[in-house]
Specification:
By secondary structure, the chain is mainly α. The chain contains 31 helices and ten strands. The chain has three domains: 2-37 and 310-502, Orthogonal Bundle (Arp2/3 complex 21 kDa subunit ARPC3), CATH 1.10.1760; 83-250, no CATH class; 507-736, Hypothetical protein af1432. The strands form four sheets. Strands 6-5-3-8 form a four-stranded mixed beta sheet. A two-stranded antiparallel sheet has the order 1-10. A two-stranded antiparallel sheet has the order 2-9. Helix 2 (15-31) packs across helix 12, helix 7 (161-178) packs across helix 9 and helix 8 packs antiparallel against helix 9.
Amino acid sequence: MAKLSKNKTEFKSDKTVKFFIAFITVILITAMFPKYETIETDYMTGMVWSKEDLIAPFSFPVYKSETVYKKEVDDAASRVFPLFDVNIQRNGSGNWLDSINSQFTKLTRIAGYESEFEKEKSLPEEKRTTNEQALNKLKSELSFTLTEAEWSSIRSTLNNPAVSDAFKKKIIQSLNQVYDKKIIDLPKSRITSGKISFIKNKVEESIDLNEVRDISEVEKILNNDFTSFYKNPELAGVSFKIARLYVYPDFIYNEPETQKILTSVTEAVPKTFGLVRENERIISKHEPINEAAKLKLESYKRIRNEQMGSSDFYLQQLGRFLFVTLMIFLLGIFLYKMRLSIFEDNMKLILISTIILLQCLLSYLSLQLKINYPIEYIIFVPVAAMLLTIIFDSRVAVYAIMVICILVSAVRGGDYDILIPNFAASVLVVYSVRDIKKRSQIFVSMIYILIGYFVAIIAIGLERYDDINIVKNQLIGAGLNAILSPILAYGLLIFYEKVFRVATDLVFLELSDFNNPLLRDLSSKAPGTFHHSIIMGNLSEQAAKEIGANQILARVGCYYHDIGKIVNPDYFVENQMDSNKHEELNPSLSAKMIIAHVKNGIKLAERFRLPREIINFIPMHHGTNLVSYFYEKARTDEGEIDTSHEYIYRYPGPKPQTKETGIVMLADSVEAATRSIEDPTPAKLETQISEIIRARFLDGELDECDLTLKDLIKIKQSFLKTIVGIHHHRIKYPETADEED
């Protein structure tokens, strides 16, 4: 377990891991860049070209739009007649008439055998002349199968020659009726040209589609004819099965040849409709982008991309790699100089990397969606702003958002027009959630996002004199962004809290609820400690506010700093009602019992999965201080003790590492010391507070936290103000005074 914990610690601070995180982030973002060169940003029809005149460096054809070209291809394809081959099996009616006669001969024999078989069923098996196996063999030689009900229905018909002959003639009559038109084997619904063609005597001929029937149409005619003629459905079914055997298509669809013709026709449709010559102006500055200008711009970009050689491609990729590297490097420098605690924690760096990659992925997907709509406003950059502010702080969020906005615009092919609206909405949303007190406040940010986007879009639209419909669509996209961003931020915040175990102010606020199981145990088992923690929370919160530290973290850290006393509450003076258990112990054992509450507290905190930021308060609020009472008692009882044994009476540390833990260390000592002052006056309280802060400072307990002398003065003044408020003198009412006299 210790080895696993050590490995985790090494991973969190390993410099190689930092390099790997940055490298993977840069590679993935670079891979999302569009394949074409990023010169033009956005050239939607109706916009005004804001750049300098664009001159063609080479001649190139102007390609038709995908919609127009596809329509022309579809029109050309619709004029191609499907090609059919003449069916050589369908040369006349004699063949199928002979086959029908043969089928009826078999049917008549089978019907006769069945009649004999039915008669002989009552005879002993040795006297039967008809074999059931032979009968089934005859049935299997038929080209179709009949149900028992159908056999029963036609048996009497087939055994009567006159009726059987009429039955056969009806089938032949129905077949002749459908053969009055040519039959094709391809469904007519698949033919859009209105005609079909076929090769006859090496000459291609064509006929109208209404002059032929397909197989399904023939089957429908036959089925309707037999159903209306016979009242017996089984008889109609048998007639249809027999007739269906002799429905031969006159023309068989030749798909390979048809596809060849179709391919040659569609490939003949030109993809271009004009030419831009070398040194010709493609578009002028401030010129409105109409449909023709847009096609020229797209064609120029397409041709230039096709002409790009492999060396050019690799140079372009190198440029993109360096650009993304620069952005990530600038963010890394900021974290190293301004937020070292974040820079040193690789898990936090991974968290920031995933947020950046998510935004770049949304930007990449917005290019892949071919929608005639400003889809770029559905890149939820404000979500990143909210997450970074809540998880870290507003300064980190603003700096990171600057980088994210640039990268998002770059991934969209240099679409820097979206940069300003995204940045405006994101910065405003930072200020809407910087002092968030509950999760529902996230949804208030919707208004700030809306304002940021709307003002930026309208300002840019007026400056460029954009078409009103373009601006309207952009505002609709921004409105959708404002509605969805808080919802996504709410869900992603929970995800990051659980997966990365990050402790936000929202988590701290939830832990401040006195219904938390640990705090309930503390209040019931160690009420004195609980009361002490509440007063410490007030002291620390106000002091943290004065010096700009995290006041929520300081207050909640106080609530949990002594939870280890739950294990043996009676060994701590604030929880003792009658006897003092330390009277039965020697000083060293008493010190051991007192110091043990730190280790017990850490175990409890880890069992209840408290954030590391809260767990740190448990050992750090004592630092490496002496348990002075029992140390002095040992010296008094045992004489001068060996200084090498001093460690027995000293807390294991570490010393406070943050402003908040330093404040709590001071608040713990101040609250305990001032509680024991008799007749506390402001002067006495100030002297006591100053002495405690001075002692901790001189002992070096505050050396590893960021508290300055200026901070310590402010902390002292804040403590004094709060303590005086707690220990204020009450007015003695007359009744009380009489009783005391």
